[in-house]
Amino acid sequence: GKGVSIIDVNRKSLFKYVNFEGLNNLKTFSAQRGTINIFNSDLLLIDCDFSVKNSFCHVSMFNSNFLISKCSFSRCRNNSIEINNSLGIIFKTKLEADSSGVVCDNNSNLKIFSSKINNSYIGVKIKGESYVKINDVDIEMCEKGIEINEGSYLEIKDSELKGCTCAVNAPQQREEFLKSEIVTENLQFKLNNQNVFIENKSLIYGKVN
Questions:
Q1: 156 to each of 5, 133, 160, 198, how far by Cα in Å?
Q2: Is residue 171 over pLDDT 80?
Q3: Which tens digits make up the pLDDT trace of 107-139?
Q4: With 26 labelled, which of 10, 36, 58, 203 sits at a CA distance of 20 to 30 A?
Q5: CA distance readout (Å), 116 to 24, 35, 154, 167
Q6: pTM flag (> 0.85)
Q7: Could you give the angle at the alpha carbon of 146 between the alpha carbons of 53 and 103, nearest 5°?
Q8: Which of 138, 135, 82, 142 has its CA nearest to residue 113?
Q9: Which residues are within 8 A (CB) of 20 and not within 5 positions of it... i.e. 6 or more apart?
């Protein structure tokens, strides 16, 4: 199959206890990159399992609201979840991907609670002046645990970054963007090659262990 596309739907779309296997991303439009593609709609994913290795990404959202709860995302060809100009929550979810577990872009607002992200090139990628809160999340065995730039904001507390090449990375960004900000509380670093690398004059506040 070619996946699912939900566009301009007034009601909430609910997927509960669904296993997604053997699907590819839609090819009708280049923007439809995921197994599930959401445009201007509301999405609820509860107790779902994604094991779609051939898809470019598992879930792609644009200008939408969403809740992803108690789901599992295995490796796909690029990013597990892509969020663009959207608002939502990821709760008690496991993610891994060849590229990024979660990409949050273009003024998105995301909260990640009680979840685990591992075996990805980037655990959480935050850009495009997005706002992200992370609480009680383990990010393990990633090339970059968290990458933030382009005037974005990250608040992370009661979480652990372990076994990453670089746990928190703030790369160089274009001059038109404001400084990114990182606020930490009870953030644990374990067995990383490098805990924090900042080259874009981002601001980091709080105590790390």
A1: 32, 6, 10, 16
A2: yes
A3: 999 999 999 999 999 999 999 999 999 999 999
A4: 10
A5: 25, 21, 17, 14
A6: yes
A7: 50
A8: 135
A9: 35, 36, 48, 49, 50, 51, 52, 58
| CB-CB neighbours of 178 under 10 Å | 12
Cβ contact 175:200 at 8 Å: no
Sorted by sequence, the CB contacts under 8 Å of residue 3 that are 6+ apart come out as 23, 24, 25, 26, 32, 34, 35, 36, 37, 55
Question: Can you tell me the distance from the alpha carbon of 53 to that of 139, in angstroms, rounded to the nearest whole number?
Answer: 21
- CA dist 195 and 159 (Å) reads 14
- CB-based contacts of 47, cutoff 8 Å, min separation 6: 16, 17, 69, 70, 71
Spell out the residues 6+ positions from residue 177 whose beta carbon is closer than 8 angstroms to its own. 129, 149, 150, 151
- pLDDT tens for 85-99 read 999 999 999 999 999
Is 180:203 a contact under the CB 8 Å cutoff? yes
Per-residue pLDDT, 207: 62
